[in-house]
């Protein structure tokens, strides 16, 4: 058989790199001197939710929102105020001028009299307690007592006052007064749901990295099988050449194939290392002192799922369970609440006020002062209405229009999200079904390629085929095996994506996400 010069040149070039490839393969294992670590998929998920720095930071968001709720509730905490004042007053002498007229002579004489005014000392103390209630009611209770002494005479004055202000229009109602708290609680609910979404993303990324590592290792094994097959062909070719059953030049194609397979192993080893590093980062294994040097050995193998239900039948569950849909619903509720608050802010301010004061009659003793207050000797009260209304009110009207348009935006976004969920669900179901069919087709292809290779090897033994013909069949078999692996891993990822599309990803895995403060947990553990 005649072989073109170009073909021989290519084979010789490949053969010239064979020695380098062989030495590199021997010197570069997947992780030289690494400590092996078996890892199940469940353990990988657990590590990702416990050790992944990004997810641990997201776990704190609900706690931050909880603190914001507590901050807003602080507006309803009662406020206690107390005050004590002492005083000393010294007044200049009172000067008086008296004019005396002599009735006989008519002469006038003035007499200047200086009357000293005694100094006074005083002490005044007051205490008040004010509180805002959930319907906007402002209350304040205050008690005040004062003592003044002048010319060895004591004077006491005490009073007890209750003031109440109740909004009737603007600021009236529990939703209005508690609006800030309700919005903070809505934000807290959103952060809890968003934490589930973050858990979704973390699990999807971790499982994808896990299956990528499985794929990379299996592809490395396929490359090793291809190298073994190429080496066996090379050995058989050398034997046939020695026996004279095969031409010398056919040895080149077998040697070139060995070199190519060794080169592929180097590439597959690098792919395994990259897949391992990604999984180590997601699971926190890289945080260990020798984390980057650990050689991870996955224990799971891809499985084929049973047939799934139609997308339309899963839609109601997806709209009920998916975190992004629930977050959108919370956002819509928050917009509606903001709209109600802005509607109330457009109203005039009309407040009903009332007060009751119990006072004494300036008695000479403190006990008498208190008795007159307790027995309501000198009560007084007042009621009134306070009206405040801006003319034009463009600021409140503009904020109300913004809130109304934002509600409409939220409704349109929610409708778009529903369509997106339906589409993603259909795509996920379709992908699961198509990848399962791809697995079935790939398994048939592998079986046929194996039979075809066996047939071609038999033809080579009988002298009816060349090394090149066998090499083509070996390549076809290796490609078929790689396609089968790719279909199996794609099927596993499709199942995960379907579970995410339906919102049951955490439920299927028995995962319940709770916010926690790792720093406090570690402090408690140390204590």
Task: Describe the fold and architecture.
- The protein folds into two domains: 5-71 and 179-340 and 397-518, Outer membrane efflux proteins (OEP) (Up-down Bundle), CATH 1.20.1600.10; 78-86 and 97-132 and 137-170 and 350-388.
- Residues 1-29 and 522-527 have low confidence and may be disordered.
- It has a six-stranded antiparallel sheet with strand order 2-5-6-7-9-10, with helices on one face. It has a two-stranded parallel sheet with strand order 1-8.
- Helix content is 60%, strand content 19%.
- A hairpin with a 2-residue loop joins strand 6 and strand 7 (153-167).
- It contains 15 helices and ten strands.
- The two termini are 84 Å apart.
- It has helices spanning 5-16, 18-27, 41-51, 53-59, 61-73, 174-177, 179-243, 250-283, 311-321, 323-345, 366-374, 394-461, 467-502, 505-508, 518-526, and strands at residues 36-39, 79-89, 94-101, 108-115, 120-132, 138-150, 153-167, 295-298, 349-359, 378-388.
- By secondary structure, the protein is α+β, with helices and mostly antiparallel strands.
């Amino acid at each position: 058989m005649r072989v073109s010069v170009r073909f021989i040149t290519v084979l010789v070039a490949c053969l010239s790199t064979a020695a380098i490839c062989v030495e590199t393969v021997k010197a570069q294992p997947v992780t030289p001197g690494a400590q092996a670590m078996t890892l199940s998929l469940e353990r990988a998920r657990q590590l990702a939710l416990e050790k992944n720095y990004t997810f641990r930071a997201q776990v704190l968001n609900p706690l931050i929102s909880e603190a914001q709720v507590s901050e807003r509730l602080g507006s309803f905490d009662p406020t206690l105020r107390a005050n004590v004042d002492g005083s000393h007053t010294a007044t200049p002498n009172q000067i008086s001028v008296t004019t005396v007229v002599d009735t006989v002579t008519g002469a006038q004489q003035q007499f200047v009299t200086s009357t000293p005014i005694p100094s006074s000392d005083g002490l005044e103390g007051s205490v008040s307690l004010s509180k805002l209630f959930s319907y906007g009611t402002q209350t304040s209770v205050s008690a005040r007592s004062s003592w003044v002494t002048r010319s060895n005479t004591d004077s006491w004055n005490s009073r007890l006052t209750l003031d109440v202000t109740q909004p009737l229009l603007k600021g009236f109602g529990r939703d209005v007064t508690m609006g800030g708290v309700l919005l903070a609680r809505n934000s807290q609910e959103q952060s809890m749901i968003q934490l589930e979404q973050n858990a979704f993303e973390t699990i999807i990324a971790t499982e994808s990295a896990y299956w990528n590592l499985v794929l990379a290792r299996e592809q490395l094994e396929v490359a090793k099988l291809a190298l073994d097959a190429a080496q066996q062909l090379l050995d058989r070719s050398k034997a046939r050449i020695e026996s004279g059953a095969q031409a010398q030049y056919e040895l080149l194609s077998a040697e070139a194939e060995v070199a190519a397979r060794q080169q592929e192993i180097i590439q597959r080893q690098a792919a395994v290392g990259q897949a391992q590093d990604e999984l180590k980062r997601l699971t926190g294994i890289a945080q260990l002192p020798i984390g980057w040097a650990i050689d991870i050995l996955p224990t799971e193998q891809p499985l084929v799922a049973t047939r799934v239900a139609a997308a339309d039948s899963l839609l109601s569950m997806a709209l009920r369970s998916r975190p992004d849909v629930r977050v959108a619903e919370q956002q819509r509720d928050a917009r509606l609440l903001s709209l109600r608050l802005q509607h109330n802010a457009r109203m005039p301010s009309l407040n009903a006020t009332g007060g009751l004061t119990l006072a004494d009659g300036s008695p000479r003793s403190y006990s008498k002062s208190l008795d007159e207050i307790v027995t309501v000797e000198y009560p007084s009260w007042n009621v009134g209405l306070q009206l405040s209304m801006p003319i034009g009110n463009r600021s409140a009207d503009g904020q109300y229009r913004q809130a109304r348009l934002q509600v409409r935006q939220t409704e349109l976004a929610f409708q778009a999200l529903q369509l997106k969920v339906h589409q993603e669900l259909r795509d996920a179901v379709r992908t699961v079904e198509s990848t399962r069919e791809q697995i079935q087709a790939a398994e048939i292809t592998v079986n046929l390629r194996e039979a075809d290779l066996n047939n071609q090897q038999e033809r080579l033994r009988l002298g009816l085929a060349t090394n090149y013909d066998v090499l083509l069949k070996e390549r076809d078999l290796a490609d078929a095996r790689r396609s089968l692996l790719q279909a199996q891993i794609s099927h596993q990822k499709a199942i995960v994506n379907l579970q995410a599309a339906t919102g049951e990803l955490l439920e299927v895995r028995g995962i319940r996400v709770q916010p926690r403060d790792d720093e406090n947990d570690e402090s408690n553990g140390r204590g």
